[in-house]
Design a protein that fits this description.
mainly alpha
Length: 59
């Protein structure tokens, strides 16, 4: 996954989390939180992969 897609996933999660809070929907809030964390994890994995490629010189 690209860094941009991971950031978009985080944004969707934040939106869902906020909407869940506003509508007092605990399930939607929890799904939003989970989606944000998933996006953050994917972003970190992408960054780590980029650093590995850079270190190997296979940029």
């Amino acid at each position: 996954m690209s860094k941009a897609k991971a950031k978009a996933k985080q944004a969707r999660g934040k939106l869902k989390e906020t909407a869940g809070s506003a509508m007092d929907d605990e399930k939607m809030h929890a799904e939003g939180s989970a989606e944000q964390m998933s996006g953050k994890t994917e972003e970190m994995a992408t960054k780590a992969g980029d650093k590995t490629k850079k270190a190997r010189g296979t940029h």
